[in-house]
Amino acid sequence: MINYTEESSPYDNASEMSVKELLTAINKEDAKVHEAVRQAIPQIEELIEAILPGMRSGGRLFYIGAGTSGRLGVLDASEMPPTYGVSPQTITGLIAGGDGAIRKAVEGAEDDTELAWKDLIYNGIKQGDAVIGIAASGTTPYVIGGLERARAEGIVTGSVTCNPGSPVTKAAEHPIVVITGPEFITGSTRMKAGTAQKMVLNMISTSLMVQLGRVEGNRMVNMQLTNKKLVARGARMITAQTGRAEEESRELLLRHGSVKNVLDYLKNEAQ
How many C-beta neighbours within 10 Å does residue 178 have? Predict the structure, then answer.
């Protein structure tokens, strides 16, 4: 296995660069991420298509990861309820060491090959669910162990890594490999690798939510009305769709709880 994420940075003079030189060089490296993700689209599509049947029947998706990778999974999962109005259990992010590891590293947690499956069991994993392991290097024992056990239990498994031929890639039935190459700071995979992982998770979760009917056109009609900005956005959606005054749209939105509920109500009223 070639460990691209651990290769030495070509910027061996980084400590001598000016601020402008640092920013320019980092931006130059980040520009490579988009193309690397594009190359992986067929793999991303294959994984989404494998997950969809289970989720259409009420299955759930779990992300498992450690460190930066685990935090990215938790971040993506946490955005699903407010954005698409789904249950917090629809997509769940699990990080080695538990929620405390979101802010502070938990020593040794990622080295436990049994821990991820224990976390999955605790969260009620079952047939029809899916697990995606996230690990930039592709060598995290927590992720490897979780994927191997899930796959042995007949659960759909995928992975997001940045090194081809890694143990995580081999453990997953539907691996995604985004080759981002050496980091600007050697081994600092929160940079290009982390950016690539975030992009892939965005693609996976957004595509799933669209395919599951949580979006109409390009509108987040099921979003939760958790602040004034979102209420105003929802009212504008209703006005754009129905031609009603924005104040009336706002009143309808607050009464029915979501843009979708309002549009369904008005459709039924017109029949």
Answer: 26
